[in-house]
Structure formats: structure tokens, C-alpha cells
Here is the input.
Amino acid sequence: MSKEKNAFRYIVEFLVIVTGVTVSFWGEEYRESLQNKEEEIKALKNLQTELNDIDTYCEERKISYVKDRNVLKYLLDNSDYAFDSIDNLVQSSPGIAFAFNDYREFQPPMNRYNSIINEGTIKFIESDSVKQQLSELHNTLYIYLKAIVDDEKLIQQKVSFYLAENYPQVILLENYDTEKKTYYNVLSKALNNDEILKSLIYTKYRKMGIKNYFLSGYLEELIELRNSIEKELASK
Here is the structure.
């Protein structure tokens, strides 16, 4: 009987220990689960804030990109109303020059996203759909846009070198003291008399069109991603 009591006592003690370890494990797992959810919500909110900033940046870029391309469109068109159309788009002669003799970068704010990737907190985001959309926006589409901007930059450099060698007056008149009409006339004359210059500017015009196309796709993906994040946050 004594042996049976001892065996029973050992069994009870063993069960108590196992139960305590199990409960402790479950408790720790539950606390970790809550902490992971907090990290996920924090990451999603950071991304949501940054997407709003990117949206504002892209809308501003879109306006500038479209304006620059329209300036080139009217320069190449060279109709009787070309100057009036350009005059309504830009405030000074440098505004005309910027469209063909410079370029606009594409550098949306991505610090929060980069931090989430570098710190590894992307692992806390449970939604595979959100992760895929993030990759599509910040990797695929962003890389495409950067590549197109780089291509446009190369064409712009060729335009600058060509103007400096063949039409230095266009470069020299590129300042705020030059009346827009005077600058336009000098530039228009150079364009009409030089097929190479016209082809370079037309190439830049085409690159800008491709850039605008991918920017539209970038903005569409951004909106879809932002909607997905809002749904994820609403479900938490």
C-alpha cells in the first residue's frame, strides 16, 4: 500500500510539473503572439503613413512630368500657337529649358519600408498578399521607373552636349533675364534647322511618355496596396 501511495504521489507530482510547464509554454506563446501582433500593426501603420507620403510625392511628380512633356510636344509641333501653349505652362525661359535640357528624378520616400526590410520586421506581417504588393511597388515598378529616368538622363546629356557644341546661344540664353518669347524663337529656329537636335528631343519626349505610363501603374499599385493595408488593420 505504501508503494502504491508513493507511486500515486510521484504520478501526481509529475502531472503537476507537466501541467505547469505546459501552461507556462502556452502563456509564453500567447505573450509572443500578442507581441508579434503589436509589431505587425506598428509595421503596417508605418507603411500606411509612408504610402500617403509617396502618394503626395507621386502626384506632384506627375504634374511636373506631364508639364515637361507638353512643353516638348509644343516645341516639336511648332504650330502658330505653340508659344502661347508653352507660355501658359511655364513662368520663365528656364522653365522651357528644363523640359529638354534637364530631367526630374524619381525618389519617393522609402525610409520606413527600407527600415522594415533591414530590421527584419517584415516577418511580422502575416498577409502574403501585402508582402507581394510591397515587393511589386518598391522593387519591380520602382526599378522600372528608375531605369527609365536614367535613360532619359542619358538623352538629356546628349542634348546638352549637342547644344553646347552647335547652338551655344541656346545655353547662354537659358536664364531668367531672357524673355520667354526670345528664348523660344532661338530654340525653335535651331530645332527647325537641325534634324539631329529634333530627333534627340523627340527621343526624350518618347522616354518621358514611357515614364509617365509607368508612373500611372506605380500609383495604381500604391492605391491597391494602401487598400490592402487598411483592410489588414481593420481586421486586427
